[in-house]
Amino acid sequence: MWSALTVFKWRAFDIRSRALGTTFSVVIRWFPIARRRFDREAKKAFPNMKRKARNNLGREMGRNMGRTLFEIYHLSEFHTFTQKFKVSGPGLDALKDAYATGKGAIIVSGHFGQWEAIRAALKINGLESGAVYRPNTNRHYQRRLLAGIKEGGLPILETGKKGTRALVKHLRDGGIMSILLDEKVSEGTRIPFLGLDALTSLSAAQLALKYNIPMIPAYGIRIDDKNEFKVEFEEPIPHTDSLTMTRNFNDSLSKRIISNPEQWYWMLRRWDGA
Known about the structure:
Elements: H1 4-30, H2 32-45, H3 51-73, H4 75-78, E1 85-88, H5 90-100, E2 105-109, H6 116-124, E3 129-133, H7 139-150, E4 156-158, H8 161-172, E5 176-180, E6 189-193, E7 196-200, H9 203-210, E8 215-222, E9 229-233, H10 242-259
Parallel strand pairs: 1-9, 2-5, 2-8, 3-4, 3-5
Antiparallel strand pairs: 6-7, 8-9
Helix pairs in contact: 1-2, 1-3, 9-10
């Protein structure tokens, strides 16, 4: 049972998280640039959605993303509240098996819910996953973000050739890596995502095939606008070819977004260039 101090700390953390969530929801609702960008993306996926419903979706997305960013900035504290993570799914056993046999594994997810809850859940289960990240041009944000995600597990690798070499080494050494596959990649392949073609990287599937390791979709789903999460590890994607495997992941994430559209970060310009 939690001590009184732990409960107090959690409530204080939750209040601060909600405050940033409220700020982000206001930004999406009242700042024209942010509102137009969200509207443009949401209309592509949900062309028949009424304006009022779309406004509500934008507000709730902002609330979720504000809370998510706060949690990432304070990830070491976030990881202490282990009772708030409900972990399930066959993919977790697949990860444990891969680790026990010295094989690497790739976890694939997206900017959905609290993606760092996935790596927190792994730590609860005695595992650790590194992650791949794309550097940000805002130096203050970059510094805080990098410091946060390092608390979730190592190594943390930048996108690019140097990071790819380190990623391959980590996988060959039996490590686990988490990759968010829902960002546009200019040299990517056109694969349907929420019913629309989107430029998508095949690299995760290519690595899984080359090194014969599992590629496992996983999601950290926020429960009822709380700092509580269902972390679900799906079945490993069957090894076929990189295009089919990546399409299977896009379909998996699309289903999650359809069920909880407010939990996906709609500002990624996901369909640009396709």
